[in-house]
Amino acid sequence: MNKFADIIETIKKYDRIIILRHQNPDPDALGSQKGLALTLQAAFPQKTILIGGQNAEGLKWLSTMDHIKNDDFKGALVITTDTANTPRVDDDRYDQGDFLIKIDHHPNDEAYGDQLYVNTDASSSSEIIADFIEDCDDLTLTKEAAYYLYAGIVGDTGRFMYPSTTEHTMCVAGRFLALGIDAAGINQKMNEITLQQAKLQGELFDRLKVDESGAAMAVIDDDLMNKLGINQEQANSVVSTPGRLGEVFAWLEAVQKHDDTYRIHLRSKGPVINELAKEHDGGGHPLASGANAKDLEEVDQMYNKLIKIVTDFKKGE
């Protein structure tokens, strides 16, 4: 039985479809959004398919957005990919359409939408879109769409290094390779950093606090970003860097925002950290989440909680 049958039937009913994703998009958000859009446009050339949200400067090589007017939402089907809750949708008009579908792989803490498909066992939303295409007779996986979906899977699996990578994930990626996508080119693009970002990695190790439990924390403030000539988006490139240290088991990175609050990145090699993120205006995967802190005092509070989480986890091993 096609588990996506209801979704494809809804898609067939609408002449205009708007596909959105989360704010501060990563490769999976952009890959699942663009891969789905290209697939639907190929299957239904008479339909108008639009993708929306703010452009991500560092990922313009992967995808850029359409200009969507208010009137475009009238009578439209809106689909969100890779977006766990409504505050994170990168267009506050997401609910102005006629019907809303959610497709996601994050924990379903907010079951929004008129229709939804959530699979937390999937490595990425791009993997889900690939399964959607495979299961629907009306859809065909093209080489162009596979390019974006592969980028999404590579991004969310850390080049197939994270525990979310499954046998099925590798089979899906294999289908993309069979179509002849430039996998090496995608991997190279995703591996590239600027000289300033490379310098940031060195600064990060100098600033990194590592507790004896294996919990770690680093703050990337305005002074450091101005010194290196980088912005908040570029600072996100070092989120995975502390995990390269054998002594680090889970870590927190706090990046200062323009309003002097902090965007928090939480990562883990074992202890579940998404509940901590939820306590601080965030959420995400058990081992990879985001949150927010109003000041450095709240950042320190989160770090102390992270130390306890890692300590308790090691006691239970």
UniProtKB/TrEMBL annotation:
Listed InterPro entries: DDH_dom (IPR001667), DHH_sf (IPR038763), DHHA1_dom (IPR003156), Oligoribo/pAp-PDE_c-di-AMP_PDE (IPR051319)
GO MF, any single term: nucleic acid binding
Residue intervals of the DHHA1 domain: 228-310
Name of the molecule in the record: Phosphoesterase, DHH family protein
DDH domain residues: 16-153
Species: Companilactobacillus tucceti DSM 20183
Signal sequence annotation: none
